[in-house]
Amino acid sequence: MAKELTPEEIQQTENDLHDSKSTKRRSAAKKIGKFKLYVLGDALYNAYMEERNDTRTWETQYEMILALGHIDYKKALPEIEEIVSMRNNNGAAEINAAVRTFVRLKRKSLNDIKPVLDLLKSDNPNIINGAVSVLTFDDMIPTDKDIRRIIAVFDSKFKDDVFSMKGTTDPRSYLISAMSKWNKSICEPYIKRFIDSSDLQIKKDAESALKGKKSRTE
After folding, report:
1. Which residue in 58, 60, 67 sits closest to 24, CA to CA?
2. pTM (2 d.p.)
């Protein structure tokens, strides 16, 4: 059974959101997300609103954004949409975290990948990776129709065997990992394309997926 925090620990977590040290605030945000402390939703949101304009604390903002998604704090959606639309000067990490949170706040269930498909219209690698990573991180299981749709999108976007966006994870890595839990009759032909890939990570992803094992976790 997962450990539950005591009322005193929950109160301390809330206090830490306002600590002068960013490491304390960051740790508190992680704890809220890990333990699903819904009761601290408002406190976390208010802390993020205070934090978000400080470019020095992007790591703390990253954790706060993710935690808002983990506790399904839908009041934060306007701020998350701002980051996803790239109207602000946010860094790659914040964009990636915001995309993951966007999917978590917008989806109707773990079978609903419409938010992911909408985000895949982007050409920004941080948006693409953030969107696809949630599929495997959260064990989302699309319908057979949506599985075919997402394969078609990836075939259109990524025609080359070697991923060309340097410094960025190949989004097919996350997709293949997610496919380990999907309908094998649809996914196996796609996965097997990468079983002899020169990219060792993609090869590992494919081998694991064919055994029904995820290779990517949050």
Report:
1. 60
2. 0.93
